[in-house]
Amino acid sequence: MNLAVVALIFLLAAIVLGFVRKMNVGLVCLGLAFILGRIGNVPTRAILGGFPGNLFLTLLGTMFFFSLLQENSTLELLSKKIVSLVGTKTFFIPVIIYAASFLLSAAGPGAISVQAVMIIFAVSLSVQMNASPILMGGMAILGAVGGTASPIALTGILVRDLTAGANITGLDMPVFIGVSVVNFICAVVLYIVCGGYKLRSDSSVSTGVIPAFNGSQKICVLALVAMIVLVVGFQYDVGLISFMLALILMLLGIVNEKAAMKLVPWSVLILICGVNVLMTVTKAMGGIDLLASILASMMNETTATPIIGLTAGIMSWFSSANGVVFPTLIPTVPDIVANVGGNVTALQMIISVVAGATVAGISPLSTGGSLVLASYTQETNASDKEQASLFAKLFGTSFMVVMVVVIFALVGGFRLFS
C-alpha cells in the first residue's frame, strides 16, 4: 500500500480512537507517530522535530499568566466590568471583539500575537456571560486572521513576496480587500449560527454593584495592559512576555503560583503537541500532498477557485498557513491558471487560498482554536468529555467557515475583486 495512504489512515485512526475510547488524542498520536515513523522509515530525529516547541511555550506562557490572573479573580472582575458597560445589550460584545481583533491585526503585529491576547479574554467573557466560547473565541480568531492579510501585516507581506516570486505584482490591496470581505461574511455566519444576536444579560448590571479592584488585582490589570502593549505594539514574543510578567507578579507576592499551576490545562497542551508530532510524520510520508493532489485533479474553470480554497483550508487544519500552505500553493497559481484557462485569474485563486487557509484557524489543531480549547478548559475546569465535545465543535465550525469561502468562490464572488 502507498505510504501516503497509510499515513492518512493512521491520522484518521488516531482521531477516531481518541474519541471512541475517550483517550487524549495527543497521547494516541504520540504513540502512533513512532509506529508510523518505523513503517515510513522516518528518522527518530525528524519525528521528535515535529514537537511544536514554539507553540508549546506560547501556550504554556499565556495559559500560566492568565491562570495567575484567574486564580486571584482579576479576570472575572474585569469581565463583569466590561459586560456592565453595555448593560443588557450584550449582543454587541462579539461584534466589538471581532472589530478590535481585526484592527489590531491589520496594524501589523500578526494574527498569532493578537489572538493570544484577544481569544483568552473573549473566552473568559463567554464564561461570565454564559455565552458560546466558540462564538466569542471564533470572532476573535476571524478578526485577527482577516486583519493579518493587510499589506503591512505578516500574511500580507508574505503573500506579496510569494506573488512577486511568481512574477505577479500589484495584488496587495485587492487581496486584502477580498480576504476582508469573505472573512466578514464568515463572521456574520458564525454570529448568526451561534446565536450572537440572542445574547442578553438577565439584568443590567450597574458598575456600582461590582466591587472595585483590590491592590493586587490593579497590578494584575497593569500587567495585562503591559502584555497587550508589548505584544501588539512592539511585537515581542507573547509566550516569553507572559513568562516575564508572570515572574514579576510572583516576585511581588501578589499571586499564588502553585494554585495557578494547577489551572494550566496540561491535557490540552499534550493533545495539541501530540497531534503536531503525528502530522509531521504524515507530511513527511506524503499524506497531505496526496490529499491536496486528489483535490487538484478535479479542477476546471468552474471548480478551480473553490477547490484551491478548500485545499488551502484542509492543509491549514494540519499545518501552518504562513509556513506551509501559502509557500506551497501560491507558487502553483500561475500554472493552474494557464492550464485551466477561461475567466479564472491569479487574483481570484490567491484570495481563495489566503481566505481558505486563514479562516480554518478556528480548528482546534491550529493556534487560534487550540487557544479557545485551552482557555475554556482553564476557565471551567472542563471534563475530558467536555473537552472532546468542544474539540469536535471547533473542528465543525472551522469546516463551516471554510465551506463559506468555497461557496463564495463557487458562485463567482472572487470575480468582484478582479
List the helices and strands and how they pair.
Layout: H1 3-20, H2 25-39, H3 44-48, H4 53-71, H5 74-85, H6 93-106, H7 111-129, H8 133-147, H9 154-165, H10 172-193, H11 215-233, H12 238-251, H13 257-263, H14 266-284, H15 287-296, H16 304-318, H17 321-329, H18 333-340, H19 346-359, H20 367-380, H21 384-410
Helix pairs in contact: 1-2, 1-14, 1-15, 2-14, 4-12, 4-13, 4-20, 5-7, 6-7, 6-8, 7-8, 7-20, 8-10, 8-20, 10-19, 10-21, 11-12, 15-16, 16-17, 16-19, 16-21, 17-19, 19-21
Write up what this structure looks like:
The protein has one domain (3-417). With 418 residues, the protein is mostly helical. Mean pLDDT is 85; it is low at 203-207. The radius of gyration is 21 Å and the shape is globular. The chain is built from 21 helices and no strands.
Uncertain residue ranges: 203-207
| Domain count | 1
Strand content bin: under 5%
Q: How far is it from the N-terminal to the C-terminal residue, by CA?
A: 44 Å
- The chain-level structural class is mainly alpha
The percentage helix is over 70%
* Secondary structure: number of strands: 0
Largest sheet: none
The overall average pLDDT, rounded, is 85
Shape verdict: globular
Radius of gyration: 21 Å
Count of DSSP H/I helices: 21
Question: How do the SSEs run, as a string of H and E?
Answer: HHHHHHHHHHHHHHHHHHHHH
